Amino acid sequence: MSNFDLSPYSILFVDDEGFTRQIVVQLLRSLGCVNVRQASNVSQALHVLKEMDKVHIIISDFRMPEDNGLKLVKEVRTGNASVNRGTPIAMLTGFSEKSLVEVALALDVNAFLVKPVSRNGLGDRLQRLLEITADQSWLSTPALYDRIDVDVVITPPQYPRATEGGVDAAPDKIKRVLARLPLLQKRYDDTDLSDAVIESVGRLIDNLGEVDVSNMLAIFEALERHEILTMQEIASMLTVPEKITKAPEVFLAEDIRTVDNEILFRSGTLVSKPIASIVGDLNEVGAIALSPDKIRELGLNANDLPPPSTGAGRAPVAGYDPSVGLAMQAVPAADLKAGDVLARTVFTSDGRLYGKSGATVTSRMVDVLKDLSGLEKIASTLWIENKS
């Protein structure tokens, strides 16, 4: 339970949904906040701010009927809202929209609250928010904020295909997973296997769950980007017909990890034919390293691990290791520093994009990513490019 006492602070909460306002206001009051004001849109929020003697924190939703919450942030940061320009601001978000997050970061939004908000999470988040904003040296000039375009079109994420049998016709769980893979999205259409890949991803999700399939495909994306595997090879691995390799059913005795210690398949995973094919192909090219003894320990049979169907006879990648092949290292989110370069795209646990592979981590991103990690919305360990 959060012990943070909000009684000394005044808070403005802006959201067009009455039920959400009711829930969050109750949470704030349970944390001791007796002076919490509400608004249902940006215009009303600006009016309420004029009435308040002091506001210590503003919490605003991104999406509202008249306009988006970023317009309120801009009014505050440019000094047009009758409050301190450096007032801490947290954005409440319940959907994925990369462009909004980028604009929010440019406007120095100090935190993101991901719906649904828990009491403990809210208390801990606001306590940290007040701590990291006490020194307002991060605040830029009004002119800089004034140049930022906040007329962002808020739309659902766009998916790579709009055909009857493509991604737009797939269940939401498949859309969510495929939308997290920008590099693979651009390339799997060229394999003439698009629909088959989509269908296979759906089958894997049914077996493994969204999070594990997302992690597996993120590994594929990194391997493709660094030319360890081709897109055709990845598509071939994914489109192996779904069939249990043998009876009785075989379950992994322990985790299978890549050579850079990323979990590929968790212990207890049912070894279907596609999974056996993936293990065999990645073992063949050196992305994982399974000795015959290890194969037996895992509960696998060497006969269940076929050679790559599209790269038969291909030699393993020479000198492949995590410090050279993928040129990345794992760091605890708490140790992330400005200037680090993300080696893998960062997603929250429910699929929201907060940092794209190749992006340089700014001081604003450090705070946001640490915040998200503290709430277990992203992994506690992130991958950054080696500087050596």
Give an overview of the whole structure.
The protein folds into three domains: 137 residues, Response regulator (Rossmann fold, 3-Layer(aba) Sandwich), CATH 3.40.50; 138 residues, no CATH class; 58 residues, Molybdopterin biosynthesis moea protein, domain 2 (Alpha-Beta Complex), CATH 3.90.105. Strand 4, helix 4 and strand 5 form a beta-alpha-beta unit. By secondary structure, it is an alpha/beta fold. The two termini are 42 Å apart. The chain is elongated. The strands form four sheets. A five-stranded parallel beta sheet has the order 2-1-3-4-5, with helices on both faces. The chain contains 14 helices and eleven strands. The protein is 37% helix and 11% strand. Helix 2 runs parallel beside helix 3 and helix 9 packs across helix 10.
Gross morphology = elongated
**Coarse structural class:** alpha/beta
Q: Strand count, sense and closure of the main sheet?
A: 5 strands, parallel
Overall average residue pLDDT:
76
User: What is the end-to-end distance?
Assistant: 42 Å
Report the β-strand fraction as a percent range: 5-15%
Count structural domains. Answer: 3
Q: What order do the SSEs take from the amino end to the carboxyl end, as H and E?
A: EHEHEHEHEHHHHHHHEEHHEEEHE
User: Strand tally, please?
Assistant: 11
Strand order of the largest sheet: 2-1-3-4-5
Rg of Cα set: 24 Å
Describe the oligomeric state of these chains in a short phrase: single chain
Low-confidence segments: 155-169, 308-326
Helical region count?
14
Helix content percent band? 25-40%
